Amino acid sequence: MSALFDPGVLAALGVPTGKPQLLLVDDQPSNILILYEMFRADCDIFVATNGADALAYCQHTQPHLILLDVQMPDMDGHEVCLRLKGAALTRDIPVMFVTAQSDPFDEARGLDEGAADFIVKPLHAAVVRARVRTQLTLKFQSDLLRSLALNAQAAADKAMLVKLEFLSSMSHELRTPLNAVLGFSQLMATATPPPSATQQVALDNILQGGWQLLGLVDDILDLARIESGKLTLMPETLALSALLGHCQALIGAQAQQRAITVKVADECATLTVYADRNRLAQCVLNLLSNAIKYNHDGGSVTLDCAVTADGRARISVRDSGPGLTPDQVEQLFQSFHRLRLDTRAESGAGIGLAVTKQLIELMNGDIGVDSTPGSGSTFWLELPLATAP
Does the global pTM surpass 0.85? Predict the structure, then answer.
């Protein structure tokens, strides 16, 4: 009788040493002896004469394959199989039923319970060995793929941690000179005597570029933290009126440069949500900034609030800009993707909306956009409602 496996095959399947381990479960010693003689030269064989002993054995040692008799007293093979497949520790062990019954309904029942194969007595050695070889090969391949997946995940987690540490370090290194640039530019802008008109224009450009770069550093770091699961949120009950009014004030200078009006609707005065205060403000400011950036001079931006049919708070940012095509809508919220909505060279790296989307989802919310070319766009956030603070 030829060997069940070539040693090279076992090594290729991730079993470089030892033999496959079989657990034979049968209450009849004569049946166990027949199977033992079939596989003793190729496998390490363990024996259980009842279902309880088989389950107990598998709690401390997981064999590569179980050959399980169906008809046994106290606990039959069907119950043993169900218990094995119902436990996390043993559900991946393949089970082959061995029985004298040839009822197709009984075979179908066993397969539905999770059995890998169904062998009917009397046993033909060549057929049984071929089927066992097939199930062992599938088991070894599955274990090998699982091991490779775990190793790949561990490597990916390590790479993400290195990436986060690098970005955190770079964020600190970039902030230090940026703070100096911004600080001294502000001092020069308020110096006595005041700067000339030409100097003021240069200072304004320095300050604008500095703040944009600082915002980009923050966005990249946020994105890395979110992707690595290292971002911590502090949700609380928030009154939208105060938060949205604060965002309106912060965005005022940017809107004024383009003569764009920013209005907060009266409906926002009574709604409260459960969210992280700083992160929600960051998301709203990002939407407001985009609504101004991709608007036309003298346009308008409106912040609306409403309660949805499923009882969530919706914050909408509606602009009077050029709107978006369906293709452009599909590309939104993707990291490092910027839409070219007009011929102006707008600043930004295209990660603000991606960060906003992930932050909102971390706060158990949702984000979307409704837009028609030529009729403006409405970006909306939905968050859980909360009782008044």
Answer: no
